[in-house]
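User: CPBP family intramembrane metalloprotease. Structure?
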Amino acid sequence: MYLLWGESVGIALTILLYCEFLGLIWWWGHKISKYSHPFRYYGLSFTVKNGRDFLFGLSLGSVTLCVFMALQVGFGWLTLQTVNWLPLSARLLPTLGMYFVDWQGAIAPGLLTAIGVGFAEEMLFRGWILSELERDYSQKTALIAASLFFAILHFIKPLDVVLATWSQFVGLVILSIALVLARWRCEGRLGVAIGLHGGLVWCYYIVNTTHLLKPTGIVPEWVTGINGNPLAGLMGIIFLSAIALGFRGLPKR
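Assistant: Predicted structure:
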C-alpha cells in the first residue's frame, strides 16, 4: 500500500496493521492459550461497567494534566498565551476567529486521537503483553517487565535524542506502572487504563495544538518537561507517581 500510494496511506496502513494485530491476538488467545473469550481475558469488554471505568479514567487524566499545568502557571514556570487584544476593532474579530478555530480544531480531533492512542497502546501493553507475562511470572515481575517494555519501545530513537530526553524514560515507566495498577484494581478490565491514557494525551494534544502555554525559563526544562513533554520533567514524574500510589492504595474490585 505504501509503495502504491505513498505517504497519504500512512494512517490507513497503521489502522490496517493494528486490526491485523487484534485478529492475531484473538487467534493466539483462542488457539494457543485456550481462552474461550480472549479479548475479555485481555481486559476488553463492552459493558456498562467498563464504560464507566473509561469515563472515570478519561476525567482523571484530563483533570490531572489541567491541575499539573495550572500549578506551573501559578508558580510562574509557565505563562498563558492569550488572544492578542488589538485596539483596532476591524482586526479584533479576525483575531478572535482564528483563536476559536484553533480550539475547535484541537478539542474534537484531539479526543478522537487520544481515544485511538489509549485503546491501541492499552490493548497491546496492559492487555495482551501484561496478560501473557502474568501466565508465567509473578505479578511483580510482570509489572516491571511490561513497564520496561513499554518505555523501551517508546525510546527507539537516535542516541543523542535518548541522552537529551532520558527523564522521559522514567516518566514512561511510572506511567505504565500506574496503568497496570489501574487495570488490577478493576477486576482486570482496561476501561480505566484506556481512559486515563486517553485523558492525558487529549489535554496534551490541546495545549500543544493551541500553543496555550509557554515556559518562562525561571526553572530548567527538566523540571517542567523537556521539549514541553510533561512525562520528561520532574513535576510530571511526581504527578504520575501520585496516581500510581493512589491506585496502589485502592482495594481490588
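The longest strand covers residues 78-80. The mean pLDDT is 85.
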